[in-house]
Task: structure prediction
Amino acid sequence: MTPPRPTFPHRHLLGIEGLSPLDIGALLDLADEAVEVSRQVEKKKATLRGRTQINLFFEPSTRTQSSFELAGKRLGADVMNMSVVSSAVKKGETLIDTAATLNAMRPDLIVVRHHSAGAVHLLARKVDCSVINAGDGAHEHPTQALLDALTIRRNKGRIEGLTVAICGDVLHSRVARSNMILLAAMGARVRLVAPSTLLPAGIGRLGFETFTSMREGLKDADIVMMLRLQRERMNGSFVPSVREYFRFFGLDQEKLSWAKPDALVMHPGPMNRGVEIASDVADGAQSLIREQVEMGVAVRMAVLEALATHLPNR
Amino acid sequence: MTSSRTILTNARLVDPASGREGPGAVLIAGETIADVAWGALPAHPEGASVIDCGGAVVAPGLVDMRAFVGEPGAEHRETLGTLSEAAAVGGVTTVVCMPDTNPVVDDPAIVDYILRRARDTAIVRIHPAAALTKGLHGEELTEFGLLGEAGAIAFTDGVKPVTNARVMRRALLYARDLDALLINHCEEPTLVGDGVMNEGEFASRLGLLGIPREAETIALERDMRLVRLARGRYHAALISCADSVEIVARAKDAGLAVTCGVSINNLTLNENDIGDYRTFLRLSPPLRHEDDRQAVIEALAEGAIDVIVSDHNPQDVETKRLPFAEAANGALGIETMLSAALRLYHAGRIDLPRLLRAMSTRPAEILGLPGGRLAAGAPADLIVFDPDMPYVLDKRDLRSRSKNSPFDEARLEGRVLRTFVAGRCVHTLADA
Result:
């Protein structure tokens, strides 16, 4: 008999903000178990049997959507993917109307990605089921931060006391925001390394060290977390050119050598090789990038399980 | 037929024009104020109806220099009729409506249309502001002369800033010959970019792109230089931060004919009120940091900011029930402007005559209107209000056709009991 778990006290997972270190720890523990389940031949559990999970993606995504799909299926849920590129939203239906329509189909869980910050909060207020934020604008991407934390914890044995350098397009990155909040809550030292044009205003006042030089920012770092340079979102000239960016901020072997010798490299994907990261680093011995993908499924299983106690239609 | 007479007795009179405040009574004869009796009761004329104000404040009706209306073109948001009802409830007796309609108010025939519709459907005084440039495109000047003759009270591109400096310079020069008033929304669009709220820590936390104060101050500073070059009368529609206060003060010191306004929202709310992405608080200029709010309150109390406007901007579900970055700018304001402004009075930041001066005397002076005074011979545009009466705003009670009030469910203190326009009572609070 396993001891009874503490119940997860939230109905939705809209962001890392609002989660206590205890909540985060509990999710990571659950995820550790999910890793074991996923490594078995028989990968299927029955926690969500009979439940309906809708993946509602307003932005194209390959890995996050498939990761949520697999996680739901491994827990026994019926998973429907709804890609909005070809749906009613194109015909002028508002987000709220889409939410109301889906809500009427009585789903148990909706996983939402949207290009606007706060859109998932808005949707969560209009539906009866549990909502998981799979990324909203430049705001949060909580499951990414959780999977990063799980990857770090499994490789370093802890999070507290580690120095984590988050490098690149912090301004547009929801991954950075969620990671900053989570890692700081768990006691890591978080550094942000980017050219000033890619750092949000007032970020220093939130208690994060900022660096505009990789040499200084990576010094003594245990973890080097690279961000995708969101080229498709840039309507202004945030950096002059890709080659200049790579020269000063792209992670190659030389820059990596400025961090601790046992530093580990992470990237949320999809990578732009030769832009923010060199191929030999991405595929090198210090890289955790492929492990992050595996942890992604586990963390999403953990989140779905944690929310299961709050599902409607009982 | 003799004109009707009404006497408002047992009142606490506030005349923002003179700064005088004290007990007394006001005699209305027909459309004008016949007598203001400070202290003693006026001679009680035969046949006058008497209204006992029970110690409530009697002051000139408010003059709102910036309100948006959906007529013509978006009557589902607001008509001149519903706007005027909302104004009457809020104690606003004169409204300047913005030209951002469909079609745009850039032709004398449309000015004429609005004035006729106002005459037939509105219960307060409506003065249309005409577009400064044709179609609000920021390129060609409108017919200031003909539009002025038709009844346009000022020229502005409404929510759109005039970004072309040459156009602004010529407009100022041409307007000077006609003594016309130009109003600009000071904002440098290239610095706004994709920004949707005040730039800073809170925007970074919400993952929303910010708008720096410099988007306002650069545009404002440019206009001050152009006014110095061209002269002419210029009014900065909405300023929202300490640096802007300083820029306007310097221009005034240099003797330029410059005035400025502040939105009731920037006086009473700050960026933190956006909270969980509340789109009703998405505004232009954006709600700023609390330090900026304190700075504009101070500037208002010192008289460095001339007027308070409602910046009333009715928006419906289709433009507001959206993710924050996709929603339209604007909030209702005309119905709650006085109640919200009284927060500053109750907090001891400004006395009543000065507060009311910024909402009646000063805008009337800037617009060249006879209102805003509590004196014999002035138009009988009057409000009776209890500055201490508490209430909780329920959006279902709003007269406006739209419901995007930033004060929904807010506790407010101070309520208009009666509103008179040209001697006629156009609003009486139901439970007064």
Notes: The first helix of chain A runs from residue 21 to 39.
